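User: Predict structure, ligand adenosine monophosphate.
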Amino acid sequence: MIRIIMLGAPGSGKGTQTQLLSKYFCIPFISAGEILRQEIRKNEKNKNYIKNIINKGKLVKNSFIIKIIKKKIQEKIYLNGFILDGFPRTIKQAESLKKYIKIEFILYLKIKLENIINRIEGRLIHESSGRTYHETLNPPKKKNIDNITGELLTKRKDDTKKIIITRLQEYEKFTKPLIKWFKKEELKNTIKYLEINANTSIQYIHKKIIKKLNINQKNN
Ligand code: AMP
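Assistant: Predicted complex:
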């Protein structure tokens, strides 16, 4: 049983590392951003609210995302563990999560600001699955084509310089304080907080994460 939260700025590689870890440990993942993007496609009622917020680079309301994630986590496939990507993003969300589930690890991907813009601007996504690529750092086998389905890759509408600035401001204001919050939680022995240098290559970061998780699982 392993339950992990991925923490880090936009562009720190949370999504990419989540997908690799999910494969490595054979555990499913939940991506908050991906769920919201799917809601835009499927849910007429909430479509405009979510779209408006995401395209401004702001965070959706705590109560809104908490309700969605809480319901999702209760699905059977997550019973034996999961990786949470993009949730919690505020202390309110973390406090709420703590009330109904025990998390073992927080993985904080620490990245320099100068690397963020390049990571985000080169990102490509396969819309229906949420698979991500990068034009140069993690290119698909065929240019602009998803490796698995052969469908066309696209860019996220919120991956522009202008919106990235707001997303980073939201991160600084609401998500970064979580680092301190989780460190305090670690002192109470409720979780294990692990920091990873996320400025290197995808595979190198992946190996580092596995190593840290394996060492800390043994110590648990
Ligand atoms: P991501 O795919 O993780 O970059 O998330 C894309 C966007 O979805 C964010 O910029 C927010 O607008 C929204 N979002 C994702 N996760 C959350 C969350 N936990 N709380 C509030 N908004 C979120």
